[in-house]
Amino acid sequence: MAIDYGRRRCGIAVTDPLRIVATGLSTVRTCDLAKWVADYILKENVDAIIVGKPSTMRGEDSESMNYIRPGIAMLRKVLPQDIEITYWDERFTPVLRAISTDVTPEYPELKKFVADMWETMYNSDGVGLAAPQVGRNDRIVVIDADPVADAFPECKGRKFTLINPEIEILDGPVETRNEGCLSLPDLSESVPRVEHIRLKWVDDDFQPHEEEISGFLARIVQHECDHLEGKLYIDHISAIRRQLLRAKLSAIITGRKRVDYPVRYAPQKGRK
Fold first, then answer.
1. Are 133 and 94 in contact (CB under 8 A)?
2. Which of 19, 81, 227, 268 lies 20 to 30 Å from 150, alpha-carbon distance?
3. Separation of first and last alpha carbons in the chain
4. Secondary structure (DSSP) of 169-226
5. Torsions phi, psi for 270 (to 5 deg)
């Protein structure tokens, strides 16, 4: 069970670590939370409760934790002792699993946000970053593939700001290569993709572009644009492999494994 604790109302959901996403069950008044949860666990099996933990950009507890911690302490008193309560990193609220919206020229401070994304990506030693990874469901991606150009010459000097990108998969063999992700630290898996695409996008001046891209660069673009569709690279691997990753994914979700880059948190329902 996952709880999004607000001053007046709380969102309650079941969560599946393999999907890294919560499925909504109900919202209740905060004053009724303890009774609602106590009644629910009499009817359904609940082995753990995860509570959303809002943080500042520096990774410190936000002021909201001043009322969340006492409220959860009250909940703890009515639960069986074998039900563990932990706080999870709000990076893994449904932001990473939502389909992002198109960006318009009226987007507030677009260039500043894009500059922040570049800084975040470089500080994390990544070659790409999508807006959902920093808490915004907007169709924005930054890519600098040059660091891998020694192994993949097609990546040399290739640097993009992709606004509202569109990908068409073209004919070509399926290649399987190793992929990792800044949002899933210390994990990597072999992912099959067709490395031949047609990419359409506008830049941060809203000038249109179109290009046919192949090789590892096409893989990087697909990987980052997957985030805009609410997908992660683990969605492209087998169910058996995802099962084997369960413990590691759970560690990320519950905050035992931290992502190194600063996160801009999305607003949560029920939080005032």
1. no
2. 227
3. 22
4. E-S--EEEEEEEETTEEEEEEEEEEE-EEEEEEE-TT--EEEEEEETHHHHHHHHHHH
5. 85, -5
Catalytic residue numbers read 224
Count other C-beta atoms under 10 Å from residue 31's C-beta: 12
More confident residue, 22 or 30: 30
CA pair distance 200, 102, nearest whole angstrom: 14
Coil, strand or helix at 106: coil
Instruction: Report the alpha-carbon distance of residue 134 to residue 57 in Å, rounded.
Output: 10
Is the distance from CB of 127 to CB of 91 less than 8 angstroms?
no
d(CA 121, CA 9): 35
Exposure string over 167-199, b if 16+ CB within 10 A, otherwise e:
beeeeeeeeeeebebbbbbebebebebbbbbeb
Mapping DSSP to helix (H, G, I), strand (E, B) and coil, where does residue 80 land? coil
> In the predicted model, what is the mean pLDDT of the chain?
81
> Rg of the Cα trace of the chain?
20
Tokens at 80, concatenated: 């069986």
Query: DSSP assignment of 129-170, as one string?
Result: EEGGGGT--BSEEEEE-GGGTTT-GGGTT-EEEEEEEEEEE-
Q: Do residues 97 and 17 make contact, with C-beta atoms less than 8 angstroms apart?
A: no
pLDDT in tens, 84-142: 888 875 544 555 667 889 999 999 999 999 998 898 888 878 899 998 887 788 999 99
